[in-house]
């Protein structure tokens, strides 16, 4: 792909908050004007009706026309009422606006990199000019083009004009905007790389076709900066980076959240050895691999509505189905009704409209077995974890000598193919033995990882786990991982280099959990150490439970760190 030379920006909800008070005030003005022109209701009711119809029909519908339809205005009356509403809505009352905090700093950094910046915005000409002036943006752009609703036929021509002005090819340009039906669609038509900003009233819209599918999605324009190198790495627009994330528990979903904004081609390879709680009960009853970790990864990659995600996460109360997850039950039902566990997982993937793939490391029902140094054997994951046992008692337990699967299992062919074709493979974070290493025990997994030409990264845990890594430093984590993976396979080890506060550490200490200290030396050999501040601000819950003070990886920071390693 050619070098990026220019970035085209939209204005509203991309560089400033247009969906906040600005839109609300515009609705109130429109309501008053429409009532004065003949809409048969009060201004207050007209305002409420706008909001109601917007929520029901979405931002692309002509709300003013629908209001007239609902209140029984004639065709002639409607014409004048809609005209009055539109005029009031787009009046020049835009005094109290300011850029998003990241807007100006990001534009300055892009200009410093030698990029041409173009602003292409739609609206009433005078109103858009006033917005740009108040926001202080005119000096930041090399070219400003306004698609005037009252005069211009199409915004598409503005894109073509900007490309002609600077002699640009589509492969030289990034387009950044919030509307998939406008700037994202036009960029895709021209073959320009499209970046959707998930802000404002258009952020919940779903693409209706391929032209409305952005190449990348970001939560703010500051995230455009780390994408530049990714785009210029000659990655085909239609595929993007091929990333495989291997693990389980709560760690793997955090990695998927971190990486899904950078590529559509992401595969989660998930452990299925859980033998506790509702997932374990379903294993015993139906003789299938554990569905719980798969469910969590499906949700992490899902593009479904919040209601569907809440449904998959819902846990029943009462006696019969106590603590059973609806998502787990559905996966089991799909597996049994189709006659195959993987077919059931694929069906669940379609229901949740996931971005990428979620695969078990094996389709066989297996248990992870543990031998301690004193010869004690645990024959399943739940026995190793020892829920309900006091942490100080577990801390006195002998350390782990080895782990193995029973029965032996083969890697899923689809998982093997994803590993061999990957550009980046991420292992962890998560429970060292039961979330990460358990995947490496599957026959064919280690060989596939060694053969793959992908960059291989281990994301280390922030804190130790009393039942698996009590007393472990960073070097011990890596040494134990390489015991099952092989030396020289890992390219990078990413670890959190900011120590949590004493208050946090004291809370973890109550559970015999301690900060993972970095005792590895940078010696130029594999794996290379990458220290970064990748943990989000701790959140304390009111309930007194073992998870009340969990430190979690910050998906945005982790994503930037991981993508930086491959680009």
Give a brief rundown of this model.
This protein is an alpha/beta fold.
Number of helices: 23
Query: How much helicity do the residues have?
Result: 40-55%
Oligomeric status of the shown chains?
single chain
C-alpha-based Rg, rounded: 27 Å
In CATH, the homologous superfamily of the largest domain goes by the name CofD-like domains
End-to-end CA span: 14 Å
**Count of discrete structural domains:** 3
Which spans of ≥5 residues are poorly predicted at pLDDT below 50?
235-239, 541-548
Estimate the strand proportion: 5-15%
Top CATH class of the largest domain: Alpha Beta
Kindly identify the CATH topology of the largest domain.
Rossmann fold
In the CATH hierarchy, the architecture of the largest domain is 3-Layer(aba) Sandwich
Kindly state the number of beta strands. Answer: 16
Name the strands of the widest sheet in spatial order: 9-8-7-13-14-15-16
Name the average pLDDT.
Answer: 88
Overall, the morphology is globular
Report on this structure.
The chain is an alpha/beta fold. The chain has three domains: 6-17 and 97-231, Rossmann fold (3-Layer(aba) Sandwich); 21-89, DNA polymerase, domain 1 (Orthogonal Bundle), CATH 1.10.150.520; 243-566, CofD-like domains (Rossmann fold, 3-Layer(aba) Sandwich), CATH 3.40.50. Helix content is 41%, strand content 14%. It is built from 23 helices and 16 strands. It has helices at 21-37, 43-57, 63-71, 75-89, 103-112, 125-135, 156-165, 180-190, 224-231, 251-259, 277-286, 292-300, 306-313, 326-338, 341-351, 381-385, 391-395, 413-421, 432-440, 445-451, 474-485, 502-509, 555-566; strands at residues 6-9, 116-123, 143-148, 173-177, 193-197, 216-218, 243-247, 266-270, 357-360, 367-372, 377-378, 400-406, 424-427, 455-459, 492-496, 528-532. The strands form three sheets. The chain has a seven-stranded parallel sheet with strand order 9-8-7-13-14-15-16, with helices on both faces. The longest helix is centred in the N-terminal third of the chain and has 17 residues, at 21-37. The two termini are 14 Å apart. The model is unreliable at 235-239 and 541-548 (pLDDT under 50).
């Amino acid at each position: 792909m050619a070098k990026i030379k220019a970035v085209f920006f939209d204005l509203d909800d991309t560089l400033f908050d247009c969906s906040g008070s600005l839109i609300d005030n515009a609705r109130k003005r429109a309501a008053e004007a429409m009532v004065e022109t003949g809409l048969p209701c009060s201004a207050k009711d007209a305002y409420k009706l706008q909001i109601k119809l917007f929520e029901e029909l979405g931002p692309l519908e002509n709300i003013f026309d629908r209001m007239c339809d609902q209140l029984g205005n004639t065709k002639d009356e409607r014409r004048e009422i809609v005209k009055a509403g539109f005029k009031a809505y787009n009046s020049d009352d835009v005094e109290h606006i300011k850029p998003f905090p990241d807007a100006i700093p990001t534009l300055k950094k892009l200009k410093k990199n030698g990029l041409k910046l173009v602003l292409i915005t739609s609206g009433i000409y005078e109103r858009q000019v006033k917005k740009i002036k108040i926001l202080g943006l005119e000096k930041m752009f090399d070219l400003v083009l306004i698609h005037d609703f009252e005069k211009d036929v199409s915004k598409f021509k503005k894109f073509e004009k900007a490309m002609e002005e600077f002699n640009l090819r589509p492969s030289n340009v990034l387009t950044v905007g919030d509307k998939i039906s406008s700037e994202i669609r036009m960029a895709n038509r021209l073959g320009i790389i499209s970046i959707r900003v998930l802000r404002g009233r258009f952020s919940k819209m779903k693409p209706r076709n391929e032209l409305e599918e952005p190449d990348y999605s970001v939560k703010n324009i500051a995230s455009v900066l780390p994408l530049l190198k990714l785009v210029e790495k000659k990655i085909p627009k239609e595929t993007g980076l091929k990333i495989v994330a291997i693990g389980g528990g709560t760690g793997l979903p955090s990695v998927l959240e971190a990486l899904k904004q950078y590529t559509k081609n992401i595969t989660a390879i998930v452990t299925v050895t859980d033998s506790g709680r509702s997932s374990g009960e379903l294993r015993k009853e139906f003789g299938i691999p554990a569905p719980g970790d798969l469910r969590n990864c499906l949700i992490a990659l899902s593009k479904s509505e919040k209601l569907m995600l809440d449904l998959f996460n819902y846990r029943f109360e009462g006696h019969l189905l106590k603590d059973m997850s609806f998502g787990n039950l559905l996966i089991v039902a799909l597996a049994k009704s189709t006659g195959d566990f993987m077919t059931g997982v694929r069906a669940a993937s379609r229901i949740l409209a996931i971005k990428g793939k979620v695969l078990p490391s094996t389709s066989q029902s297996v248990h992870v077995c543990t031998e301690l140094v004193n010869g004690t054997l645990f024959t399943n994951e739940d026995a190793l974890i020892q829920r309900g046992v006091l942490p100080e008692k577990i801390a006195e337990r002998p350390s782990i000598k080895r782990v193995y699967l029973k029965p032996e299992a083969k890697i899923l062919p689809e998982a093997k193919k994803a590993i061999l074709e990957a550009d980046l493979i991420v292992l962890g974070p998560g429970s060292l033995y039961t979330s990460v290493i358990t995947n490496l025990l599957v026959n064919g997994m280690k060989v596939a990882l060694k053969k793959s030409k992908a960059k291989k990264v281990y994301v280390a845990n922030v804190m130790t786990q009393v039942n698996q890594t009590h007393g472990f430093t960073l070097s011990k984590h890596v040494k134990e991982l390489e015991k099952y993976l092989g030396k020289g396979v890992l390219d990078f080890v990413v670890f959190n280099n900011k120590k949590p506060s004493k208050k946090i550490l004291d809370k973890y200490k109550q559970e015999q959990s301690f900060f993972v200290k970095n005792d590895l030396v940078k010696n130029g050999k594999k794996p290379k150490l990458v220290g970064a501040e990748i943990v989000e601000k701790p959140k304390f819950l009111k309930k007194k439970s073992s998870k009340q003070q969990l430190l979690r990886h910050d998906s945005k920071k982790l994503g930037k760190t991981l993508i930086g390693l491959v680009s």
